[in-house]
Amino acid sequence: MIHRLTRSPRAAGTVTGILVGASSVIPVRRWPRPLHRGVLWGFPLAVAGTSAAALRHVSSADGHSGDHAPAEGSAATVLSPQARVAIGLGPAVLIHLATRVSYWVDDAVEVGLRRLRVPAPRLVYAAGAGLITGLQVAYDMRQRERSGACEPSAENIWD
Question: Dmax of the chain from CA atoms?
Fold first, then answer.
């Protein structure tokens, strides 16, 4: 039964919408400081570190890993640790900036709802966020079913 529910666009959209809506009830500015800073800085730093570590194993276009010496005459590109960190910082900066923008949008939407004198603006905001997210998830799953695409997994994530 659980397997069938996870494959249902309506069920997945509903569950995702409820989770997003519930997490939107408490404004970001009221989160405890360690949680606020952890989300703002922790995830981007984890992405940067993971990217830099993953790049250690990609040292050439012909598939040699960073642990093996390339064959003579091959065009291997070995990245220095500084280059790996620099490349890893790109996605980290983008994630940090996107998180900052989402914090700003969160406050701006609430202020806008208060100016419109909407009763219980956070609940309206949470319900709207949950509804929109749930509809997006359900739509995406229906599109995936129609196109015949398989579920993303570790083996086919880049296909």
Answer: 72
Write phi, then psi, for 134 (nearest 5 degrees): -60, -40
Q: Give 10-residue mean pLDDT values along the chain (159 residues).
A: 73 88 89 90 88 70 51 62 84 93 93 95 93 91 80 61
148 alpha-carbon distance from chain centroid: 24
Quick one: CA dihedral 41, 32, 113, 11, positive or negative?
positive
DSSP conformation letters of the chain: -HHHHHH-HHHHHHHHHHHHHHHHSS-GGGS-HHHHHIIIIIHHHHHHHHHHHHHHT--BTT---TTSPPPTT--B-PPPHHHHHHHHHHHHHHHHHHHHHHHHHHHHHHHHHHHTT-SSHHHHHHHHHHHHHHHHHHHHHHHHHHHTPPPP-TTTTT-
CA 46 remoteness from chain centre: 12
Beta-bridged to residue 76, according to DSSP, are 60
Distances in Å between the alpha carbon of 121 and those of 35, 91, 128? 23, 33, 10
CA 137 to CA 14: how far, in whole Å?
A: 9
Rounded Cα gap, residues 67 and 58, in angstroms: 9
